[in-house]
């Protein structure tokens, strides 16, 4: 990490003075360094940034949150707060109001999401994003991503049952942001017709893999409810009670900040729900960015001074962020396993597919199925096999097939052929594993993931797998392919070479457990005039568009040119090692997408998630198909609207 990085960044944002009142309590007297003068007290304040009334949302974003995204991807937890008097622009700044209509006014959250999904050619890291959106209202926590019974339980300083949505595209992320925004508590007060009566915490969980380093970090974007004077806001009854709770939460945040800036040994996190929830983010191991929103009006001087003083306290915190690196912990916990993985001739498991902790544990604490236990199963008493071990065989085979396709000299046509082979092979292996696991129902396996399945032995599965592989190979290299009768004929020698390449380990590989899922989520459909006519909030981001999200080093997207109907092009933006893979993947995608009949048969896999099986059904797709194309060389996740490709095939 750069030594000059500011770990705590404090910015002041001055709300535009719409009342045209001449008398202002604030004046910026210098921007280099940024100094603010509180006029009637002749008192000056200095911060990292001071945004005058005319500063755009984009500038605020570039100077506050944008640098943090980089660190979050590197594994540093970060938190951005919007704090200030009610009606001074916190919700506007964060973008937690439901009806944003133009690009200029888009708030920080959406800009941040856009950056997470933005493709960067130089960045080879693989990123997995989950989102949660919590509201704290009257000292109770609610999950804004659940429409019903969304009250969350708090145990100590932990919130339980928070919905964490995995998102593959900006489009999906926007859907959840809008959903959460709609569910927030708002009410009109004298000072703000749409006053947020709650604190809202939008969290982006980011798991990143870059080379051997795996990190897991989160970025909290917090829109605090406004500090308010009951007299000014004119609240009473239940609204008054809201105000009391809001102020209580804010007071406790202030106390935590004071304790941190004073280097106290005791930090009073438990005083309110908001500080309890943010405990793991409000500490010195994180990046903190505060955007304190203030009103320039003389009548608001008291609140403005309070906000500036709060900002000063935060500025005094000397933090030293720490990276949440997984690999070091992983090595420590599993030295033997790590050694094995380094020595294995196969590729490491795909990070994107590694099992995630069920309850958002840090990656470092994942209880991954231990490789050593697999070895023990195999060498000492091959009497039983867990379902996850069974699926690991599938994955190992996949890894092996990956390594088969490693020679760069492979022509695209052979690659395609390899893909087809792998596809059928994986199907068969999937069936073998399923049938060997049949002693337990799928539900039971799902419920008891770690249970052993009696009667299924490593040797049994290995044997079955090797039989399939051998017969496939024989078919491919034998009579099945003729030089004259097949387009592959002229490449037959190459095919043979490739198939002989390193195929022997298939039958004796050690397990590498990864997770495969294939799902067709049924997102609520909004009626639209054209397949891509998105609502304003979605249009304002210059979309690379419906991103087919990235796995490993590849990324696909459907670029939709809004100006010409039906001009839907598929492209793959990729930093794949082998350029020809891109074409192949593109073709594979087009094949899958154009073949809508085929697509319509896919439905969510109902088998244990780790057992890699795509189930077919006659039910048509609702509106969206999402899944993975796992055909050998690379694995690409994609998600696209069925309507889009239907349109494409009919018009194009
Ligand atoms: N910098 C700005 N530029 C343009 N409009 C702004 C700006 N800041 C605030 N506003 C407008 O002022 C009004 C009040 O802002 P907002 O609702 O964001 O305040 P708030 O601090 O979140 O209030 P509360 O704490 O009551 O929820 C909104 O209509 C918003 O669009």
UniProtKB/TrEMBL annotation:
Regions annotated as coiled coil: none
Superkingdom of origin: Eukaryota
Compartments where found: Cytoplasm, Cytoskeleton
Positions of ATP binding: 84-91
Gene3D superfamilies: Kinesin motor domain
Keywords on record: ATP-binding, Coiled coil, Cytoplasm, Cytoskeleton, Motor protein, Nucleotide-binding
GO cellular component: microtubule associated complex
Main location: cytoplasm
Example GO biological process: spindle elongation
Pfam families assigned: Kinesin (PF00225)
Name of the featured protein: Kinesin motor domain-containing protein
Organism: Diabrotica balteata
Phylogenetic classification of the source organism: Eukaryota, Metazoa, Ecdysozoa, Arthropoda, Hexapoda
């Amino acid at each position: 990490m750069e030594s000059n990085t500011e770990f705590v960044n404090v910015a002041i944002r001055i709300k535009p003075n719409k009342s045209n009142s001449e008398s202002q309590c604030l004046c910026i007297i210098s921007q280099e360094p940024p100094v603010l003068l509180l006029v009637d007290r002749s008192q000056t304040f200095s911060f990292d940034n001071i945004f005058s009334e005319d500063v755009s949302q984009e500038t605020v974003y570039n100077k506050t949150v944008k640098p943090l995204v980089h660190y979050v991807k590197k594994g540093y937890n970060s938190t951005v707060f919007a704090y200030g008097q009610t009606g001074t622009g916190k919700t506007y700044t964060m973008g937690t109001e439901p009806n944003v209509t133009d690009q200029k006014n888009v708030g920080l959250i959406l800009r941040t999401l856009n950056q997470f999904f933005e493709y960067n050619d130089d960045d080879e890291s693989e990123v997995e994003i989950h989102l949660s959106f919590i509201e704290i209202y009257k000292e109770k926590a609610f999950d804004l991503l659940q429409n019903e019974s969304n009250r969350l339980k708090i145990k100590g300083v932990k919130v339980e049952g928070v919905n964490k949505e995995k998102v593959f595209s900006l489009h999906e992320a926007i859907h959840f942001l809008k959903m959460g925004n709609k569910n927030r508590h708002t009410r009109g007060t004298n000072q703000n017709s749409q006053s947020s009566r709650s604190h809202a915490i939008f969290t982006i969980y980011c798991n990143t893999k870059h080379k051997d380093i795996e990190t897991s970090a989160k970025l909290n974007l917090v829109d605090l409810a406004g500090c308010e004077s009951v007299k000014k806001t004119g609240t009473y009854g239940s609204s008054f009670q809201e105000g009391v709770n809001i102020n209580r939460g804010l007071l406790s945040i202030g106390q935590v900040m004071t304790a941190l800036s004073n280097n106290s040994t005791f930090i009073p996190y438990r005083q309110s729900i908001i500080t309890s929830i943010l405990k793991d983010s409000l500490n010195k191991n994180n990046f903190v960015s505060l955007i304190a929103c203030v009103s320039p009006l003389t009548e608001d001087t008291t609140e403005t001074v309070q906000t500036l003083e709060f900002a000063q306290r935060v500025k005094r915190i000397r933090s030293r962020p720490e990276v949440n690196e997984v690999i070091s912990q992983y090595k420590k916990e599993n030295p033997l396993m790590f050694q094995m993985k380094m020595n294995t001739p196969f590729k490491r498991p795909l990070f994107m597919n590694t099992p995630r902790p069920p309850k958002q544990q840090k990656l470092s604490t994942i209880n991954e199925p231990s490789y050593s236990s697999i070895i023990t199963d195999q060498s000492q008493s091959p009497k039983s096999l867990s379902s996850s071990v069974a699926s690991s065989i599938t994955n190992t085979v996949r890894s092996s097939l990956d390594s088969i396709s490693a020679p760069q000299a492979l022509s695209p046509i052979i690659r395609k052929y390899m893909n087809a082979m792998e596809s059928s092979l994986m199907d068969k292996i999937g069936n073998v594993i399923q049938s060997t696991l049949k002693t337990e129902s799928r539900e039971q396996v799902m419920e008891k993931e770690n249970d052993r399945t009696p009667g299924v032995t490593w040797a049994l599965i290995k044997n079955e797998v090797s039989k399939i592989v051998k017969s496939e190979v024989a078919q491919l290299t034998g009579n099945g392919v003729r030089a004259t009768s097949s387009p592959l004929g002229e490449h037959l020698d190459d095919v043979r070479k490739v198939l002989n390449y390193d195929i022997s380990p298939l039958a004796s590989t050690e397990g590498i457990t990864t997770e495969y899922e294939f799902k067709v989520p049924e997102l609520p459909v909004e009626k639209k005039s054209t397949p891509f006519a998105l609502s304003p909030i979605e249009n304002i981001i210059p979309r690379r568009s419906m991103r087919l999200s990235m796995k490993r080093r590849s990324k696909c997207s459907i670029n939709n040119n809004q100006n010409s109907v039906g001009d839907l092009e598929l492209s793959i933006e990729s930093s794949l090692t082998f350029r020809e893979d891109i074409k192949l993947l593109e073709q594979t995608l087009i094949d899958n997408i154009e073949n809508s009949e085929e697509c319509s048969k896919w439905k969510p896999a109902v088998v244990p998630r780790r057992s890699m099986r795509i189930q077919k059904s006659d039910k048509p797709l609702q509106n969206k198909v999402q899944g993975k194309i796992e055909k050998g060389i690379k694995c690409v996740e994609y998600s696209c609207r069925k309507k889009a490709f239907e349109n494409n095939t009919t018009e194009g």
